[in-house]
Design a protein that fits this description.
By secondary structure, this protein is mainly α. About 60% of the residues lie in helices and about 5% in strands. The strands form 3 sheets. The chain has a two-stranded antiparallel ribbon with strand order 1-2. A two-stranded antiparallel sheet has the order 3-4. A two-stranded antiparallel ribbon has the order 5-6.
């Protein structure tokens, strides 16, 4: 008979526990547990109330160690407050950057890839305020670390981190361009990943490569595309600075000088242009201390830069061409400047100009089919915005774009000799570019090239008469005018004989018509002086153009320089110095002026010193207001002439005698000049 539930409960209450071998005996049910635990509350010391009189603290009584320690906190607001506290500490104790720059950068640089946007913005603000005041040589040891985290941000999976990393890169290029340029291989590879339209992937079998669409590029908006391209152009300019920058703004006028850090030409450098500067025998052996190692390193650096530029062109060109084709349609409408399309087109030309200047120096070969094809597409709309009148900034952007296209046309024309078809096509482009360059300077060809029989022997006069002044003369900014002169010189090298004369005559006209006090006045005088200098050079490699038909035009311009110096007085001393240098060059090194022209020049120099006016008496010229160097240059011009006439000698004596503060050097030079 089965047990009932009551019987089962009764047996459970009095159940006998069986003991097992190896097991402890269970405690009795009525045993008292005497074990206990204790807990305590610990209050950490508050740093804001601690005495830190010996340490540097900010307004919240936090030391540098306290602030840097919070930058690894798990909470984003704490990390942001740490950056604010660090900025406060630096503002109160500026010298901390000199002693603790390493710990500050090492602790804060990891926040470039922080997941919180507010922390990254705070770090960018802090770096922007602090790093600009630190010398580049002090930041150089930490450039590699900053580049590592910046490149990590550029390839991050989140788009906002990538965009902020580009801003950090722009800041690094501003504060330490040379140090950041050394990491070009890594940084440009990241730009390729952001801008390449297709990416190449290697298959697992047989090592085959396949191309896939880059989704990052295809999803870029106009704004994000513009910011990435601006950053890429900025970095490429810093990377190619050894090739692109030059102290001489007329570097392009020498055949044996490429873009580079060349000295600006001075009066003492003139002999190098007339006498070939060939290296001494056995100079490569370094027997007399020649800097052959440094020169060899410089050549290797330039070769490396050119190779990297060609690689960058090959990998970026598809993206740039795609961007151009999407944005260039704006020139077929009346809404130029309404969106970012114009900025994108201008930026594409800026990037390509940097690449073709570094990859192709003197000309673009016919084998560069991509660049020539791009030029073909540009010429469909050239000149861009020909009928646009409106915003001044938009007009300046259009002018800069057209000048870049003119430069590319000139380079393609110079390298088109290998292909007859391309040569014929480039001649048409060259004529259109020549017409635009003249119009940009406020001139235009008359269109009729007929001349009477008396003028057939004076081709220079024909070129001058074919030019007509426009309604308003163009006053270009110095930067744009420098680029325009580059395009003019390149076009003159590859144009037909008549077009070359037309371009140089246009430069002479602009030199006379531009504003007296403008920087372009000085640059144009130096440009024409350099052209005369190259034409009369004894070095055959420098003679790029035959300017013999333009001797009459150059002679008239040279004879007008004393009057120009009198008009300038002391308002534009660089232009006066350039004019004095041009006069000295012509009188000493060339046969541009005959005896009658030299006599005319000497007579026009008299008003620079003094002249007797019946109604006013003796009127002194600007010579007394010139600095010492310019006074010496003017007297050297007088001394370079064959014989000093009596009226000029008397004017010099009267001018110097009227000023008691004339230095002894001038007194001696005056005596030598007058006696000569």
């Amino acid at each position: 008979m089965p047990k009932t539930k009551k019987q089962q409960r009764k047996t459970e209450d009095f159940k006998k526990v069986k003991l097992k071998v190896g097991k402890k005996k269970a405690p009795p049910s009525n045993a008292t547990d005497t074990s206990f635990t204790s807990k305590s509350i610990v209050l950490s010391s508050q740093s804001i109330t601690a005495d830190k009189g010996a340490a540097l603290t900010n307004s919240r009584n936090l030391t540098l160690k306290d602030v840097l320690g919070k930058m690894r906190h798990y909470s984003a607001p704490v990390r942001k407050d740490a950056l604010v506290g660090l900025a406060d500490l630096v503002s109160m104790h500026g010298h901390v950057l000199q002693t603790e720059l390493g710990p500050i950068i090492e602790s804060s640089v990891r926040l470039i890839v922080d997941a919180e946007p507010a922390v990254r913005r705070s770090l960018l603000r802090f770096y922007g305020d602090v790093l600009r005041d630190i010398p580049a040589r002090d930041l150089a040891p930490f450039a590699s670390l900053m580049v590592v985290f910046t490149c990590s941000g550029m390839t991050h999976i989140l788009e906002d981190i990538r965009s902020d990393a580009i801003k950090f890169l722009d800041l690094l290029v501003d504060v330490a361009p040379t140090a950041v340029a050394q990491h070009s291989a890594t940084i440009m590879r990241n730009f390729f990943s952001l801008l390449e339209t297709k990416t190449a992937t290697k298959a697992a079998d047989a090592g085959r490569q396949s191309e896939s669409v880059n989704t990052r590029t295809s999803l870029l908006t106009q704004g994000s595309r513009l910011s990435i391209m601006q950053s890429c152009y900025k970095y490429m300019s810093a990377h190619a600075r050894p090739l692109l920058e030059s102290d001489d703004d007329l570097w392009f006028m020498y055949a044996d000088r490429t873009i580079g850090n060349t000295k600006a030409q001075t009066v003492s450098d003139i002999d190098s242009c007339f006498y070939p500067d060939s290296p001494a025998p056995f100079a490569n052996l370094g027997l007399f201390g020649e800097a052959t190692a440094a020169a060899s390193a410089a050549v290797d650096t330039i070769a490396s830069l050119r190779a990297q530029s060609k690689e960058s062109f090959e990998r970026l060109f598809p993206f740039l061409q795609e961007t151009w084709m999407e944005s260039v349609t704006i020139f077929g409408t009346n809404n130029i400047g309404s969106d970012k399309s114009l900025e994108l087109c201008a930026l594409v030309l800026q990037i390509l100009q940097t690449l073709w200047r570094t990859a192709y120096v003197e000309n673009v070969p016919s084998s560069a089919r991509d660049l020539i094809g791009f030029l073909r597409r540009c010429m469909v709309y050239f000149p861009f915005g020909r009928q646009y009148v409106g915003d001044a900034q938009v007009e300046e952007t259009l002018l800069a774009m057209n000048i870049k296209v003119c430069e590319l046309v000139a380079l393609v024309n110079l390298g088109a000799a290998e292909s007859e078809e391309l040569a014929a096509e480039s001649q048409g482009w060259t004529q259109r570019a020549t017409r635009f360059v003249l119009q940009a300077m406020g001139l235009k060809p008359s269109g009729s090239s007929s001349a009477n029989k008396a003028e057939q022997g004076k081709p220079g006069q024909q070129a001058s008469q074919r030019l007509q002044a426009s309604v308003a003369n163009a006053h270009l900014r110095p930067e744009l005018f420098e680029h325009l002169l580059l395009a003019l010189w390149r076009l003159a090298q590859g144009s037909r004989h008549k077009d070359t004369e037309l371009l140089i005559a246009g430069a002479v006209h602009y030199a006379r018509s531009c504003a007296l006090v403008s920087t372009s006045k000085t640059l144009c005088i130096r440009f024409l002086t350099r052209a005369i200098e190259i034409h009369w050079s004894r070095n055959p490699s420098l003679r790029l153009l035959d300017l013999a038909p333009l001797h009459s035009i150059f002679g008239e311009w040279v004879l007008s320089l004393p009057k120009l110096m009198w008009q300038l007085r002391d308002r534009n001393q660089p232009a006066s110095a350039a004019a004095a240098y041009a006069l000295r060059l012509v009188c000493q090194r060339t046969h541009l002026l005959d005896d009658s022209a030299v006599a005319t020049l000497q007579a026009s120099l008299v008003p620079l010193f003094c002249v007797a006016v019946p109604s006013k008496g003796v009127v002194y010229g600007p010579f007394r207001t010139y600095p010492l160097s310019l006074q010496k240059a003017v007297l050297e011009v007088v001394g370079c002439c064959s014989q000093c006439p009596s009226n000029l000698a008397q004017a010099i004596r009267d001018c110097v005698a009227s000023d008691s503060s004339v230095p002894d050097q001038i007194q001696v030079l005056v005596q030598e000049t007058v006696i000569c």
